[in-house]
Amino acid sequence: MNITLITGDHPRHKYLVNKLMSLKVNSVWIVEMRENLIPKPDKRLKPNLKRLFKLHFNKREKVEKKFFPNFFKNISLNKKTQAIICA
Question: What domain range is 37 assigned to?
Answer without folding.
Answer: 2-86
